[in-house]
């Protein structure tokens, strides 16, 4: 039976196999013949609705004249995944996109983020999360709100695991000064950012209001490294949902935008001092 709701990771595997086939100039019908299946099954594999064995995947790659061993090994690893992550506990309770994001973070090799609107999700306190979620119109049912909050809090664990990956956050000053709740929540949130920035795998840098040449305030984004650069992912949030980018041209563009934003940010030590000053201002008012 084909999967009725493939995950983003399953769809990505299928999409990469389709890209590989198209780059080789092989039709879907011919690809199906090569592995002894039919075009319908081939279509389901490339849509992420059906799995594929390691043997078939490696044979397809050879027939597509793909000699990128690292990429093929990474795709084989994706195809062979059988375990259920912690996010599966929330399936049926939250939108599929939320679960896909947690899975993306779990498999990341590094993460970079630029935020000019909100504190990055992985650096949010529970009170900040609740205030953000409670702003929804129409209001969320209390039980659903609690589920959303617990899910986002649990996502933060990706930064504190023994094998935690590098996370770099570029945060605009407007984010640090915006109070989504009250001053107490704001102070606690700034203190939490500073606390997390002390982790060896977490880097926080601030882009101040008075920096010259920063025109990227509208480019909030989340960039997640894959096992090979071709499997990187860029995520952009919008009012009506998130957009996931994986075309090489898009990934190149978003890496360049992050680099430009980082060039406008304060050094790590100066950023910590900057956040301390804003926290002090909030206390004194």
The side-by-side strand order for the widest beta sheet comes to 3-2-1-4-5-6
What structural category characterises the helix and strand content? alpha/beta
Strand content: 5-15%
Radius of gyration: 21 Å
Number of continuous helical runs: 12
Short structural description:
With 285 residues, the protein is α/β, with parallel strands linked by helices.
Overall description:
- This protein has 285 residues and is α/β, with parallel strands linked by helices.
- The protein has helices at residues 8-23, 28-34, 39-46, 54-63, 69-79, 96-107, 126-134, 142-155, 173-177, 183-197, 248-263, 268-284; strands spanning 110-115, 166-172, 202-207, 221-225, 233-238, 241-245.
- α2 crosses α3 (39-46), α4 runs antiparallel to α5 and α7 packs across α8 (142-155).
- The relative contact order is 0.11.
- The mean pLDDT is 94.
Q: Would you spell out the secondary-structure blueprint of this structure?
A:
Elements: H1 8-23, H2 28-34, H3 39-46, H4 54-63, H5 69-79, H6 96-107, E1 110-115, H7 126-134, H8 142-155, E2 166-172, H9 173-177, H10 183-197, E3 202-207, E4 221-225, E5 233-238, E6 241-245, H11 248-263, H12 268-284
Parallel strand pairs: 1-2, 2-3
Antiparallel strand pairs: 1-4, 4-5, 5-6
Could you name the key traits of this structure?
285 residues; alpha/beta; six-stranded mixed beta sheet; 12 helices; 6 strands; elongated
